[in-house]
Amino acid sequence: MAVTYGPFAQKIWEDAVLLPAYSSLIESLCSEIATFLDRPLEGTRELLEAAWNDRARQMAHDLPQHPDPAKLTHYYGQQTSGLLTSAYWHSLLPDRYALHSVSGLQCLNQFGVGPDVFEFGHGIGSTAILLARHGFDVTAGDISEPARAFAAQRFAKRKLPVKLLDLERESPAAESFDAVVSFDVLEHLPNPVEQIAEMRTWLRPGGLLVLNIAFGRDADNPEHILPYRLGVLNRVRGLGFQRLPWPGLYVFAKADLSRGKRQLFRSVDLIDATREDVVARWPKLTQLLYAKINPPIA
């Protein structure tokens, strides 16, 4: 389903992640990359573009068509090039990722989840920044050492108390979060259903799982491991989730299997809502959220 996010969503994103000294997301992020790499700002944008253009060749060299988990962990966990391509995707391309993140924020607010949120695969940390700016107690995890270091720099710069986990060495405690979010990550894994099953253990009863999964491996997306859906979404329901209607994202509520019930979410008036009803109200939801934004952060 196509979703039109509009200028309100873009404003929400920019207000959250843009550094005060800059007028554009591109300039802001390039300055942070330059600081992290201890290099001049001049030429940083070209560095990101070169890393992005080289990613297909590097993937073909480093990973076979069906890579084993150990090779994937090494590829995503240690290389600075992955940080650079992620930064390019976030701010130098038409930013679907940013708008999915804003949609996820709106989803959490609309369904009234609790404050404790975990982001699986935080990348450069932009979604965690957005959620923390809007009052959530965020924990973020990734296997990439460069990504964790860069995200930590960004959180410190903004004085945001986001907690970081090294997912190669530790996992969240059972039933410790009201929501788990993950955007454009699971398509990079060979066994996404197994990962989603583990995510379920991190959720409290009735907690939300909010995903964007961009299936499809081709010349433009060589890093996507799964070329097709392969029944993934149907298998997720079998893990003990209830699919919830939300435009543009895959949203599931953790069912209470011990009592044979499905505890959905606190906004009871939306339990029987159709997908069309949610879409029809989308512009209003965006405007309501934007109206609740705090005064600009210095």
Describe this structure in words.
With 298 residues, this protein is α/β, with parallel strands linked by helices. The protein has a single domain, classed as 3-Layer(aba) Sandwich (Rossmann fold). Helix content is 46%, strand content 14%. The protein has helices at 6-17, 25-37, 44-62, 69-78, 80-91, 96-110, 126-133, 145-157, 192-202, 232-238, 275-280, 282-291, and strands spanning 116-120, 137-142, 163-166, 177-183, 203-212, 241-244, 250-254. Strands 3-2-1-4-5-7-6 form a 7-stranded mixed beta sheet, sandwiched between helices. Helix 1 (6-17) crosses helix 7 and helix 6 packs parallel to helix 7 (126-133). The longest helix is centred in the N-terminal third of the chain and has 19 residues, at 44-62. The model is unreliable at 259-280 (pLDDT under 50).
Beta-strand content estimate: 5-15%
Distance between the termini: 37 Å
Q: Which residues form runs of ≥5 with pLDDT under 50?
A: 259-280
* Radius of gyration over C-alpha positions, nearest whole angstrom: 19 Å
Q: Which CATH C-level class is it?
A: Alpha Beta
- The spatial strand order of the largest sheet comes to 3-2-1-4-5-7-6
* H/E element order: HHHHHHEHEHEEHEHEEHH
Number of beta strands: 7
Q: Provide the CATH topology.
A: Rossmann fold
Helix content: 40-55%
Mean pLDDT: 77
- Which architecture would the CATH scheme give at its second level? 3-Layer(aba) Sandwich
How many helices does DSSP assign? Answer: 12
Helix/sheet category: alpha/beta
Major sheet summary line: 7 strands, mixed
Instruction: Provide the CATH superfamily.
Output: Vaccinia Virus protein VP39
Total tally of structural domains: 1
